[in-house]
Amino acid sequence: MADITAIKHRIRSIGDTHQITKAMELISVAKMRKMMDKQAYSALYFDSVRATVKDILCHSADVHNKYTTPRGGGRAAYVVIAGDKGLAGAFNNNVLGLAWEHMQRYPVHYVITIGQMARAFFETKRQPVDLEFTHAVASPTLHDARGIVRDILDLYDKNLMDEVYVVFTHMHSSSDYAPEIVKLLPIEEKDIKAEVRATYSGDLCYDPSPHEVLDVLVPQYLIGMIYTTLIHSAASEHAARMVAMSSANKNAEKMLDTLGLEYNRLRQGAITSELLDLTSGKFFRESAAQGGQRKE
Amino acid sequence: MPNKFYLEIITPEKTFFRGDVESIQIPAVGGDCMIMAGHQPMVFATQPGRIAITADGTSREAFMSEGFIEVRPDATIAFSQAVEWPEDIDERRAEEAKERAEEMVRRNRSAAEYRLNRIALQRAFARLRVKHHEYGDK
């Protein structure tokens, strides 16, 4: 049977861990809410950008931008978005596994990682990482997205790659999220998922020309894609952590229950044996004293 | 009584403006434009500059970064990365951005960088001018 002080020790340490996981769960809930709010605002904006880009590409076949023309090679680049921290269940593993699997199809590929876990993963797989961002995961801002897009376009402009994919975790709802791959470059009409605008379906004119509007829209489109994927990833990470932490909480409570029971039993046992010692000691002393009196 | 139309100005972070207006002046890529009710459906690309919204006879200015404006029969919607009222513009930040961009333009390393820096400079200038209400003096 375990030592009573050892059990006391374990109860204390599990209690501490329980407190931490409880705090982490609450934080994740709050952060996930915040991310989902952000997502709602940005979706309004970037969905329209996407719809307009699609509209231009759809209606004006002769309009081309250097980012909308396929290059036709097989060199792919991957932007892999994972978390900065672990303790989020299978969140990081899922998205990284998907990226790794997809990568094996292309002989030449570049890897751009966003988040510490992504970088660590490729290091263990001995896959050199060409570009890494580590600050943008916890709370993505438009500024971060702009910087990332600029660096990616830099590489793309140098003609180092033909296609750019983004691997991220898409969040459908707080309990439903799954890793996904989307093509970022070149921009092709069939890849743009946009709902058909319901309010107006007539032809729109473009001022000064569809070409120039597209030139303005393409960077916005790319920034929007990166920003939304970053936010989706962050929200999913927090959702995954929330679930992981709540199960950790449950386990901790269960452990505390059984340990508490055992501790109480041991304590009770110790008290009983002590009482036994005392009473038997007293009994013997009394009987010894009585025996002495009798002798006198 | 001039006709009104429904205007919405949206940025990725918030809805900046929503309401019925008489006109809006925008810094389109092809030159400044005024949009009034009953405009032909159109999409304008805009460069960083000043917008002026006129509603109920009074006009308000604001800074708008690059973006685009969609004029539809039912609503006009402006999309931009950043839209700010004059009182919300951080003057010192804009000043710093201006100096940084000027420095970068001077170094002038590549065509792509030049273009980026020129837009950054344009943004900073537009912010400062909206802040100081200098557009009216032209």
Q: Which band does the percent of strand residues of chain B land in?
A: 35-45%
Largest interface: A-B, 31 and 30 residues
Which oligomeric form is depicted?
heterodimer
CATH class of the largest domain in chain B: Mainly Beta
What are the SSEs and their pairings?
The complex is a heterodimer of chains A (296) and B (138).
Chain A: H1 4-59, E1 76-81, H2 91-103, E2 109-114, H3 116-124, E3 131-133, H4 142-157, E4 163-173, E5 176-185, E6 205-207, H5 210-295
Parallel strand pairs in A: 1-2, 1-4, 2-3
Antiparallel strand pairs in A: 4-5
Chain B: E1 5-10, E2 15-21, E3 23-28, E4 31-36, E5 42-46, E6 49-55, E7 58-64, E8 67-71, E9 76-80, E10 83-84, H1 91-107, H2 111-131
Parallel strand pairs in B: 1-9
Antiparallel strand pairs in B: 1-2, 3-4, 3-6, 5-8, 6-7, 7-10, 8-9
Description:
The complex is a heterodimer of chains A (296) and B (138). By secondary structure, chain A is of the alpha/beta class. Chain A has one domain (21-247): Pyruvate Kinase, Chain: A, domain 1 (3-Layer(aba) Sandwich). Chain A has five helices and six strands, in the order H-E-H-E-H-E-H-E-E-E-H. In chain A, strands 3-2-1-4-5 form a five-stranded mixed beta sheet, with helices on both faces. In chain A, helix 1 (4-59) packs antiparallel against helix 5 and helix 4 packs across helix 5. Chain B has 138 residues and is α+β, with helices and mostly antiparallel strands. Chain B folds into two domains: 5-86, ATP Synthase, domain 1; 90-131, Single alpha-helices involved in coiled-coils or other helix-helix interfaces (Up-down Bundle), CATH 1.20.5. Helices cover 28% and strands 41% of the residues of chain B. Chain B has helices at residues 91-107, 111-131, and strands at residues 5-10, 15-21, 23-28, 31-36, 42-46, 49-55, 58-64, 67-71, 76-80, 83-84. A five-stranded mixed beta sheet of chain B has the order 2-1-9-8-5, with no helix packed on it. Chain B has a five-stranded antiparallel beta sheet with strand order 4-3-6-7-10. In chain B, helix 1 runs antiparallel to helix 2. Chain B is globular, with a radius of gyration of 16 Å. Chain B starts with a strand and ends in a 7-residue tail after the last helix. Classes of the chains: A alpha/beta (296), B alpha+beta (138). Chain A binds chain B through residues 38, 41-42, 44-46, 48-49, 52, 142, 150, 154, 157, 199-200, 202-208, 212-213, 215-217, 220, 223-224, 227, and chain B through 10-15, 28-30, 33, 40-46, 66-68, 70, 72-75, 77, 79, 81, 112, 116. Strand 6 of chain A pairs parallel with strand 5 (42-46) of chain B, so a sheet runs across the interface.
